[in-house]
Amino acid sequence: MSHQLAIEHDVIGVGFGPSNLALAIALNECAKRSRLKCTPLFVEKQPHFTWHGGMLLPGSDMQISFLKDLVSLRDPTSPFTFVNYLHKRGRLLDFINCRTFYPSRVEFNDYLQWVASHFKSQAAYGETIVAVEPVTAGQTVTSLRVHSRSLAGGETVRLARNLVVAVGGQPYVPQVFAKATDDRRLLHSSRYLDLIERVVPRGRSVRVAVVGGGQSATEVTVDLHGRCPEAHIDLIFRGHALKPSDSSPFVNEIFNPDYTDFVYAQPAERRDAIVRNFRNTNYAVVDADLLDQLYRLLYQQRVGGDTRVMLRPRSEISNVDAGPDGIEIGVIDKFRGENRRSTYDVVVLATGYDRDTPHGFLEPIRRYIRDAALDRNYRLVTNPAFRPQIHLQGYSESSHGLSDTLLSVIAVRSQEIAESLLSTISRRELIA
């Protein structure tokens, strides 16, 4: 435990991915404009900045325009735009010649790392927040005591006047796989590149199940076949067919920042209906180009009389048993009334992320939170005697719309949160 006096920060950000990186830019801009001093710190559990490192597959492209970067929708003249990144890297003309709005995921990660390098002094890498406690004066909570643990096990305590939580989703493991969660042969797609070389050695005829019917599942299937053509791969999913994502221009308008106001203004049941209606833009769907690539792969298999990659649609997984010979998966096809059991050397879960998990580190201040729902500025509603603001980024799809977990609104959302935070700093300076 650190025994030195805890340093106080105006804002502590939990996580330093794209959302809080965009906030770092917005806080810097807003503080300069309003001539206020703001001292943020962003605590990130990874040892360095990486965005979805386990899925930075060669050849995988962004599914969102580069113009929806960290700042362009708010301020296209900012030095932190993707276009300026290309200019600084000496690749602007080359990128223009590619004639695309969709850079590779590897390049976009490099852009984010480039931006993060400008905010190195505001980041503490390799630390995990373990507890957030109230600091009181009488009946009033004046600030927060934030405990973090380093990769080496040491603890640090800092004080925060405000908190912004943006740690992303937790890899979702379906309940049917609960007994196998500690099995080294079971991995989530979020760790795919980190672990696949270990569990699927090149040149070995292994049996692999990929579970999921969306973009990640399809990307893993195509990549795995490319790196290990000898592998037998079953793509197991519940739907009748792999479906394309709807990225048509009129539908894409639901990701516009002003659509957030429309969704938030609706009563709860209408918000639910809107989210359900547009799920095919983001969930259990696949980019059309990737679908074509997979279909051609399967067709060439038929030409050669090969069945190494198999689609297993309409497959409801009923039971999972991990044994010495592999992980056995039992599936039911309810439409045909058929049961099938297969044993695999490796299982990759491309089952998405859970964003409903309550943050355990907030437990010590839970009693001050009035409602789990957020206000329009992504702030938790707290008791009047609780002065710190706590904002959440990426946890309000049900109240703010489908764009909440995506890059589409982070340029605008970060400014809304920054202005909300800076207003408390200006009020404090007026009182002082």
List keywords for this structure.
single chain; 432 residues; alpha/beta; FAD/NAD(P)-binding domain; five-stranded parallel sheet; 12 helices; 21 strands; EC 1.14.13.196; oxidoreductase; FAD/NAD-bd_sf
Radius of gyration: 23 Å
User: Total strand count, please?
Assistant: 21
Report the CATH topology name of the largest domain.
FAD/NAD(P)-binding domain
| CATH top level assignment of the largest domain | Alpha Beta
Strand order of the largest sheet: 4-3-2-8-21
Give a quick account of the main beta sheet: strands, pairing sense, barrel closure. Answer: 5 strands, parallel
Intertermini distance: 33 Å
Low-confidence sequence ranges: none
User: What is the molecular shape?
Assistant: globular
GO molecular function: oxidoreductase activity
Cofactor: FAD
Family: Belongs to the lysine N(6)-hydroxylase/L-ornithine N(5)-oxygenase family.
InterPro entries: FAD/NAD-bd_sf (IPR036188), Lys/Orn_oxygenase (IPR025700)
